[in-house]
Amino acid sequence: MPAEPESAIEIHLDTQLAERGMTLTELARRVGVTHANLSVLKNGRARAIRFSTLSAICEALGCQPGDLMSHRAGESSLPDPR
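and the corresponding structure tokens:
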């Protein structure tokens, strides 16, 4: 089975948590999702996130979606059309 292409989206959840002195476990409790699911997101392995989850994370951290993720310019996770 071929490897999944690396996403051009970078997740900055670890930075946001560190700036607030909050653990992933505490964020999971506040947001109402499992620690495992947040860990997948934090480590950049998530393939999708629900807007309701993103909104809850932003509310708990007092941040905006752009504070949690960025796009590496010049990189695409789209398949090569050739």
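(Above: one complete record from the training split.) The chain is about 50% helix and 5% strand.
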